[in-house]
Every structure is written in C-alpha cells, then in structure tokens.
Amino acid sequence: MKKHRLMVLLVIFLAFTSFFCFANESPIDESAVIKTGNLTLMQKKEIIIDREMLHITLDGDFTHVYGYYEIVNPGLEGKVTLGFPVDFLKDSEIYGIAWQKESFPYYQITDEKGKLEVKEYTDVKPQIVISDGRKRDVLRKWYVTEAKFPANSRKKLIVQYTVRNSLLDMDSVATFFPLYSDRLFTYCFIPAGGWGNDIIRNFKIVVDARKNMEEGTIIKSLSFPEFYGYGGFFIYETEDFNLQDLYELKILYNNSASLLTEFVTAYQVKKDHIISLQSSPTLKDYTVSKLMDKDFNTAWVGGKEGNGSGEWVEVKLRDFCLQAVGIINGLPRNEHTYYSFNRIKRLKIEIEQDEFDFFEDRAKKRYIEEIVELEDKQFSDFNQMAFAPFLSIVADLGQSFNKTYRIRLSILEVYPGTNNQTAISELFLMGYKNDQVFK
User: Which residues neighbour 306 within 8 Å (Cβ) at sequence distance 6 or greater?
Assistant: First the structure.
C-alpha cells in the first residue's frame, strides 16, 4: 500500500514539475553583442581628438553608427595603431561565428585616401557582466587598424558600423504571442586612453529615431543628461568633452509594437484555408468580405441598429491550426468614423477543433465557448504601421496544435457610437498549416 501511494505521489510530482517547466518562459532570440566602444589608441601617444561627431540611426533592432573624427598629431611622423572594441557574449564563440556576424554585420574605417585595412583580435580572458539580470561571460573583440600620421598634421577618420542591439526575447507555451524585451544600444567611451588628456574639444551626438518612432517605437531613456529632441532627432553638443566623465551612452527603447505587428501579419490565416466567411445581415457597403481584406479603412457593419446584440460572424476553416483570435474593433479610418460606430464590449466566441489524445492516439472533437470582455481602446493609440497594440485579443490558445474547423463570434454588448451600428474593421485568425514555413 505504501509503495502504491509513493508511486502515485511521484507521478503527481513529475506531472506538476513538467507542467511548470514547460509553462516557464524560455529565450527565443538574443543579440550576441553587449556593447560597442569608442575609437581607441592602442599605445600612449600625444595625439588629440579635436572633433568627434557620432551619427546614430535606429533601424528596428539594429543601430547604424557613423563616427567622424578630426585628429591632430602635434609631434613627429609615425604609424598609429587604432582599435575599436566590441563586446560579444562568450556563448557566441560556442554557437558559431554566424551569430556574431548577424549581430555585428558591418565595420569599416576610412581616411582621406579611402578604406583602411582592418584586423581582428580577441582578448583571451573573458569579463563578467550583468545582463538581463544574469551573469554573462563577455569576450572583447578588437577591430585594429594602422594609420600613418605625418608630423604636425590633422587627419580625418570615419568609422561606420552596424550592430544588433542588446535584446532577449522570450516565449511561453502559456501564450501564442512572444514576449519582446526592450532594446538597448550601448556605446562605451572607456577604454579610450591615449588621446592626449582624454579631452575632445568639439563633441556632438545625433540620434535619428524617426523611422522607429513612425513604426510605434517608444524611446524610454537616453543616458546623457542634456539631449534636446525634435521630430525624432535627439542631439547632444558640448566642448571639451571629457571621455572619463560620462562612461557610456545608452539608448533604451521598445519596438514591440512593430515586432508584434510583423508577427500577427505573418501568422494570419491564408485564403486557401478559409472554406466560408459568413455573418448576420450587414449594411450594403460593409459586407462580411471587408473583415479580412487587410484594409483598416473598411469594415464589416451589422445591419441592425441598436446595441448589436445577436449579430454574428462565422468562419469555417480547413487544414489550419488556430492559436489566437483578434479583432480591430470599430472603423479606425479616422477619429470621426471610429467614434461614430459602436465598438464591441462583450462577445461570445465558439471554436470547434480537434484535440489529440496522446493516451488513445487519436483526435477527439473539442468545443470551446467563452464570454470575452474587450477594452474600449482610444483612437489616438492607433498606428496603421504598428497596429498590434490596437488589436483586441478574443482568444489565446497558447502553443496548441489542434486542427480547427469553425470560429463564431456573437455580439452581446457594445460601446455605443453616434450612429448606433456596430463595426469590426479586421478579423485575425492566427496560426499555421502544419507544413507552413515562416521567415
């Protein structure tokens, strides 16, 4: 009896352990680069940076850097060794050089005569840093160049590179949607020893975040205290900038709106998986076909005036594993149309699908029915280029693999508009065919 009871307890323990292990979040994407550095003299010389300008352009997960330097040699003619440091996760050495190249795909240094030769060296001893709350081993790689400096001369150098910013995206079986982290670009001014007294006479940073901000990116912080911004540009200017005073430039931003929009679009059901799309009666120019036409300027509008109660839409599918359902509520063509039409407050969702029984090795019919209440989103939050935050999630089935046959949405209650008719701009049925390939 005791043995039997112990076995039962062991099975229960293993079941719960497995559940929590699989329910936990796990990493799905990470950059191999922690930070980049400033152009550095590899040996002590009395050479001065008279002017430095950094033009930093945010581009999705990447940053493009254009560094312009005017360097003065007040002494004798000679060769100078310049190094540019990039800190890579030590894991990137284990998982292959391709990860490093993906995270740091481009580096170039030029002078007045053209491109200079670059050699790569890696420090033998790793450093330990704290990244995303974890201790990580970091290896510093140096991109090294030799440049000739005539006596009593001024030289112009341009450094250009692209880096994938520090990130750590997670996934969980509990939800269909990835969890996107903030993105962090770090530019370290140390090591910078050797530049005379480490004073830059004229120093300027320009951060161009226009493209990202148009796509819904939120700039959360810029570590320098005196940036001024306008129209997506952030600018810092000073004289006699001490490289020892401000250790790092950090740009922290969140572009999950754009990333989630790409994700939702990629997993939207394809037309060849739709058997039929039907609904209760509609207004003449707002038919059910408008529900999945990829156009936020059109909408399905129920033909019945009032609170929309009893109106419905239904989709029948073939060969499709449904994982999430969402709608763009109302008609967000503009602010007037959005608040003219009713938006759904409560609805009933019904889903018919197969559920595979691993014990019996066969699929069984599964029927899901839930009442869902939706938030009334503000039109000011709508961005056609990054619409995902405006998407109302009706069902999130997690990482399920069940073939789905039918989805039906029935309206129960609305947020009233001025014309007393209910609109849905777009319906998203997210999932995949078993053999579907995604980028």
Answer: 420
